[in-house]
Amino acid sequence: MLKSLTDFDSLLFSRNIQLRDLSPWNTIIAQDPSVNPFTSPDPFSGLNPKRIVFVDFAGTDVVWARKYMSPEREKCLGKYISPLLLLDNYPPDEFSDWFNDWYINAWAEAEYAHTAASITPELREVFKRRFS
To answer: What is the dihedral of CA 81, 83, 23, 89, to 10 degrees?
Structure first.
């Protein structure tokens, strides 16, 4: 589930869409369509953590007005941003009640180790300023 959310956020950012409100109350674990929750003895039996639905795009910025953008932010447009960079620089997490920080850090470092080479000093500086 966490990987689905992380990959979704990275995909949107690479398409010049910034999601500013990724939080548990905007995330739904979808029901498997083959399971009827009203007739199943276990109403949670059809929940599939691989079927994540994000339901609130009100806090979303579609980045299109480049002429109003700082040069630093423009350097990030349309680029894949490693979740490791976000993890290092993000403010306290809305999902902290769901997962322990030590688990998230260890999981993300292992899951996204292949993206570490994409983090340039320039991107690191942009994100450090963005979240400080």
So the answer is: -90
123 in Cβ contact with 75 (< 8 Å): yes
Q: What is the DSSP string of 29-57?
A: EEEPTTS-TTTSSSTTTTEEEEEEEE---
Name the percent of the chain lying above pLDDT 90.
2
State the pTM of this model.
0.55
Each residue's pLDDT tens digit, 75-122: 676 777 788 887 765 555 555 555 555 567 788 888 889 999 988 888
DSSP 8-state assignment for residue 78: T
> Is the Cβ–Cβ distance between 116 and 84 less than 8 Å?
yes
